[in-house]
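Support reply, case 0932

Customer input (verbatim):
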Amino acid sequence: MQKELLKAMLTPWKTLKAMQDAGEFTAQLVCQEEYKSYPFEAVWTEYCRRQGVAADESWLKAVTKYEQDVLSARG
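Our regenerated output:
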């Protein structure tokens, strides 16, 4: 959830709204697509580094181990 909130905070909504209000729909569509590839991931990676947590899918190994060790024992 934090990742999506960060992405939403970094999206230039005022610019997109201004384009929509001006009827510049082609420009709005192009910018929306360009914003998807903006360096959001660099900001997320730095945030995770400062929090001392993994920024990539490597955390999935710990979840899988937990599921095997703890959740399967509950079954």
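We compared this against your earlier run and they match. Two observations from our side: The helical segments are 2-10, 13-21, 25-35, 40-51, 60-74. The chain has a mean pLDDT of 89. Please reopen the case if you see a mismatch on your end.
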